[in-house]
Write a structure and sequence with these properties.
Number of helices of chain A: 5
Number of domains of chain B: 1
Structural class of chain A: alpha/beta
Strand content of chain A: 25-35%
Chains: A alpha/beta, B alpha+beta, C alpha/beta
Number of domains of chain A: 1
CATH architecture of chain A: 3-Layer(aba) Sandwich
Radius of gyration of chain A: 16 Å
Largest sheet of chain B: 5 strands, antiparallel
CATH topology of chain B: Beta-Lactamase
Largest sheet of chain A: 7 strands, mixed
Number of strands of chain B: 5
Number of helices of chain B: 3
Structural class of chain B: alpha+beta
Oligomer: heterotrimer
Helix content of chain B: 40-55%
Helix content of chain A: 25-40%
Chain lengths: ~180, ~130, ~350
């Protein structure tokens, strides 16, 4: 009997330090394959290491299907990796660090880059580190999306919390029904 | 910022590399996280984006050899229709990328590049 | 122009100069309009509300679900569908009145005009049987008490239905205070509390200092008032829609609800996803999600009370029949996501 193993791919993208690698680690059943290297520029003040190629995790589903979790590099100079990684993805999760210098501008970078995918690919935005209350908070992101005339689900999330990631995937599932 | 600190030494060594080996048309030193430190070339190649791509590739190389328990990834060679590109570690933080358009010059490319990387590693170790 | 059936305009909380402006601008605008508009405070079709002042804003909050309000302000901070900028300009007034005639003709169909004073004196409404009607009247539940507290700007303590649950409201800070809540996982007891009828809620006026001291002593958490407007409406609706809406109403979410402050179950993400993408009938959402229409109605009411809903004209792109056909085809993507969720939740 021929067994068809389908691949399901979800992509985590977003700004440096937003928690993409952490989110993948939270769900993955294998140790995350990462390409983190030492940060050598001023970004070192925020984070000791940075992803330069991709992160990869897996979750085996019933029937042997694999959920493949990819993370993109966060820094914009690695944007050439973004379209490579997103190819064939079932859903996109954009994570933004609310405690960064200008998180709304960070969100704008990813929205602009992935705009052509947003119409057909279920996409959810997760705002991380809102608990630190250092950033503009949720209303600023709502205003940005409204100004861009974008109707996208958006949540404050803690990438260490499995329940939060389940909520995001539940929403992606709902978006699939609508697309 | 590391790229600025090593830039003078890196420029000197790259210049020497291109002088010593006719076959090498361009070379650059980049940080492991994709910042350009220095570059030298005999043509007009668009090398800017190669800094980030080189760092991604070296990191993937390290990930692959780690997965296979083959130790440290020394170099990655890309043999192409119109030339060869070699990526190699200088140390834990720097990567040397060298390019030749001569398809038969792999040996020259690697030996000169390896020597350059070793010399540069010594030169920057005290910085 | 039929002057025997004028469209009536009333005002609320307008300053004297604004009202004079409105009357004179209306006079000038009249020759460019097909319908005869007249200021009639007794039986209005539409009401201009000065939302720049607290009284007007509170009135808006209490009555905007009736959809016959026009926000008058310096800028449209409430993101009202019908908005007139201050100072009033003739051309903008003409454009607005034409838009209202075209986009909200139902406002002018009623033979008996709604009374302008829609405020419900909650203290007089104690007959529980009224809540068992087919429409949902928010003024009979915690929602109504919260709105009334906001309107009167009175700090209060609400003790909720036969339990130890309580809630402080401090309108000055746009906040409520209560014990720590997990809005993604409210207990059945908490849900029961938020659906309390007003006759089961004890209300006590308190001062802000008392609230501050109790909050500190008992470690209470601060929440936006919207959280409880949402929770009360969601659980008290029990499948009934707000007055003036039907399951055929075409609706769209203005934005994704902030579920970090709104009580929710996973199914609410699905409802929100359908309501967010494009205008859709409530009954179509029920059909497409397989959820009961009561669930959809509850969610709609909660979103409506929190001003998250746009009501659209009845020309949905996908007809109800088309939706019926589509719903029979479960897509491959859906089943893949179901597998992922099954694995993650272990259910």
């Amino acid at each position: 009997m021929r067994i068809i193993v389908k691949e399901i791919k979800l992509v985590f993208t977003g700004s440096m330090g937003a928690g993409k690698t952490t989110a993948i680690s939270t769900i993955s059943e294998i140790p995350v394959v990462n390409t983190d290297v030492r940060t050598t520029d001023k970004a070192r003040l925020r984070k000791e290491t940075t992803t330069v190629a991709l992160d990869y995790g897996e979750l085996t589903l019933d029937g042997g299907q694999k959920l493949k979790l990819y993370g993109t590099p966060g820094q914009q100079r690695f944007e050439y990796m973004w379209p490579i990684i997103i190819k064939g993805a079932l859903g996109l999760i954009i994570l933004v660090d609310d405690a960064a210098d200008d998180p709304v501008a960070d969100l704008a970078i990813y929205i602009k880059f992935f705009k052509s995918y947003l119409e057909d690919m279920p996409t959810v935005i997760g705002i991380t580190r809102t608990d630190l209350k250092q950033g503009p908070g949720m209303p600023a992101y709502y205003d940005y999306l409204q100004n861009q005339d974008l109707q996208l689900p958006i949540f404050p999330v803690d990438p260490r919390q499995r329940e939060h990631l389940i909520m995001i995937i539940q929403t992606l599932a709902a978006m699939v029904e609508v697309v | 910022m590391l790229s600025k600190i090593v830039e003078p030494q890196a420029s000197l060594h790259l210049k020497k590399l291109l002088e010593d080996c006719d076959a090498i048309k361009a070379a650059m030193v980049v940080t492991v996280d994709g910042n350009l430190c220095a570059m030298q070339q005999k043509g007009t190649y668009a090398l800017e984006r190669l800094a980030t791509m080189g760092s991604s590739l070296m990191s993937l190389g390290d990930t692959i050899t780690g997965e296979l328990k083959m130790g440290f990834c020394n170099r990655i060679i890309s043999e192409n229709e119109q030339g060869i590109v070699a990526f190699m570690h200088i140390n834990n933080e720097l990567v040397l990328i060298s390019i030749t358009t001569e398809k038969n010059s792999l040996g020259m490319l690697l030996s000169h590049s390896k020597r350059c990387a070793e010399n540069l590693a010594k030169a920057v170790s005290d910085l | 122009m039929d002057i025997t059936h004028p469209h009536n305009i009333a005002t609320h909380a307008l300053e004297k100069t604004d009202k004079i402006f409105l009357v004179s601008m209306l006079d000038i605008a009249q020759k460019n309009l097909d319908v005869y508009w007249v200021l009639n405070e007794d039986s209005p079709h539409i009401i201009f509300v000065n939302v720049d002042v607290p009284e007007g804003k509170a009135y808006w909050l209490a009555n905007h679900t009736k959809n016959n309000l026009i926000a008058l302000a310096q800028y449209n901070f409430l993101k009202a569908d019908f908005f007139l900028e201050k100072p009033i300009r003739v051309q903008k007034l003409i454009d607005l009145l034409k838009r209202i005639s075209t986009e909200a003709p139902h406002l002018f169909l009623k033979t008996e005009m709604a009374s302008k004073n829609n405020d419900v004196d909650i203290d007089l409404v104690l007959d529980y049987s009224e809540s068992e009607t087919e429409v949902f009247d928010p003024s009979l539940y915690l929602t109504g008490l919260l709105i009334k507290a906001v309107q009167s700007r009175t700090a209060q303590r609400f003790s909720l239905a036969n339990s130890s649950s309580f809630l402080f409201i401090l309108p000055e800070q746009d906040s409520c205070f209560t014990k720590n809540l997990d809005f993604s996982n409210l207990t059945d007891e908490q849900k029961m509390c938020y659906r309390s009828h007003i006759k089961d809620i004890q209300t006590e006026v308190v001062n802000a200092n008392t609230i501050a001291s109790i909050t500190q002593k008992q470690g209470l958490k601060k929440y936006p008032i919207e959280s409880f407007l949402w929770a009360s409406t969601l659980y008290a609706s029990r499948g009934r829609l707000l007055t003036g809406y039907s399951t055929k109403s075409v609706v769209q979410l203005k934005r994704w609800p902030d579920f970090s402050i709104f009580a929710h179950d996973p199914e609410h993400f699905r409802i929100a996803a359908f309501m967010l993408k494009k205008p859709i009938r409530l009954e179509t959402i029920a059909l497409k999600t397989g959820l009961s229409i009561e669930h959809i109605n509850n969610f709609f009411n909660a979103a409506m009370i929190n001003q998250l809903i746009d009501i659209k004209s009845n020309n949905e792109n996908i007809t109800h029949k088309q939706a019926q056909k589509e719903s029979t085809k479960a897509t491959e993507k859906q089943s893949l996501f179901k597998s992922v969720l099954k694995r993650l939740t272990g259910e």
